[in-house]
Amino acid sequence: MSADVNTASGFGEIGQEAQPTTDKSKKKSRKKKLTAHKAAYLIHSYIGLKLSLLFSVVLITGTLAVFAEEIDWLVYSEVRVQPQGERLSSGEVFDRMQEQLPNVGLSAFQTANDRTHTAAHAMMTLPDGGFKKVWADPYTGEVTGVTNFLTVGEFMSILHKNLFMPLIGRAVVNVFGVLCLIGLITGLISYRKFWKQFFKLPRWNANFRVFLGDLHKFLGLWSLWFVLIIGVTGSWWFYQNPLVNYGVVPQFLPERTIDPALTKHDLKALGKGIPSPLTSKEIVEAVHKHDPEFIPHFLNPPEHNGMAYAVHGTKHDLLTMKWGSSYYVNPYTGEVIGAKLAQDAPAISRVDWSMRPLHYGTFGYDGFWDLFVKTIWFIFGLAMSILSISGMIIFYQRTKSATKKTINSGRIRGKLKKVWLVLRPWGGPMSGFKYLNWAFLTVICIGISIGFKLQSEGTSGSGYQYKAQDIGPWNISLNATLGLLEKDLDPIQAGRSTTLNAYIHEGHADAIKFMYVKVGKPRTKRAPGAVLHGTVGNQHAHTPIPKTLKDDAELWLTIESWDGEFYQTSWSLMPDGINTVDLRASQADEVSVKSVNPTNQTGSSQTQNTPAHHLKTEQHTLAAK
Q1: Mean pLDDT score of the chain, rounded to an integer?
Q2: What is the pTM of this model?
Q3: C-alpha span between 394 and 207 (Å, rounded)
Q4: CA torsion angle for 444, 448, 451, 455 (degrees, to 10)?
């Protein structure tokens, strides 16, 4: 709430000319002391101006992200459906979606159980790299179409959460939560008797600067409660990231527990044949039978054979996300083997979980109240955005006015000096911070371009390729990348983790019980390395790289089959130009993407037997519906 310094801020004396006098003692006595009001005003102005460009981006995108789902509903016809009698079981919709796309990986299925006119959707991993969203009618199970992963709403949400900046993006955004709190407190201190000014409307017929000052104060007063919520939730997350993440402060939240999983006894009970997992419909029915009041909103099939089928949802617990409670089901027997319910969580965890619905205004859950709460959050989010922009304009107007008084703008020399006063690192209202703002915006633009590239290409054609080898009855290749946003960097760096993707070209994928990868030959079968997990086209493992690497270091792949047999093979860890190739440096080698990706594989949903061009044909057909 940056007040107009010459009106209601309590500092009307600033900028007034002092009366000439020769009495030095009188001059000294007339100097203004640094009062609490003045200090608060200076702090308020400083934090509201120095990072105002970046602050405005965070506020505007956060305001739009409130209606992320609704924006996508308006923009994409694939998202809109018409109610047709009773809804199908959430699990049955997912099963039918998989039947219509049998050769792609589907995960993270969102049921849309809290929406009557919105399609359910899942994440689809393409065989040739990249990610899409596939949508299905929850009343018929028919796939309505495919969209990019970065829909308009998703783009706004990600931009607000992490600014498309790897590693530090979320921490940078969380900083503004702290600044909101500081701005709120200092704004109230600097605005004398603010409680009497709630109904003082902006002076519409005054000059632009006065009007902006009045509007800034008016919106600031009526947004106090909202700024407090945003400030508290953002500061709460700031404590976690970066402070807890980097070991600056202790963690006060309970340690995150490991999700329930299948035991060795559960796996042994399945025998040595290839087991048949239950359908998603049967899984959801098992959860409903166990807890009839539970509403599933998010289905997460197991990513390897030792994982449980996770069904996330809600029992309408106060101020929790709609997937805040979870049941874990044995995918082969339907037995509920564990649960994490909001009603059983400690109080401090419930407080932590309440931050997201409070921050985004999603606690209305569904129907009229959901739209009502989101509308309020949107209106006051817009007010906060106007606060940031108007505060910036007020200070620029003041600086422009002060500059005109000291520089003759009619002369070329004066104009050049005026430009220099703004461009120099210590000049202008933002001083050197203007370069920091532009640097952040540049990094954001680069991150956005990488994000759009990733959704269409994934990590294909990047990093190190470990060429296909026969291992038992299978033919498998690996691909190493440092990470999604870091896919063009050296994937093997001592002391860091890398992401290894596995592609099965030949052999029955369902006959594989587990696949493991490890740098260095495993000493025993009990410690074969990191387990590969994920969906078709995205089976991967986050593998640690030793701090010291030998020149002859090898990458080992271990496969355990359902009949109890173990198979192993290895590659040179670093590029040797024969079996291990640096794809980043050898584009001219014409390494076909198909040699890295699955093209000839048999089996059930774990198999990959559709070429990339065939999948793209399917996408075009679906999009035309």
Answers
A1: 83
A2: 0.80
A3: 12
A4: 170
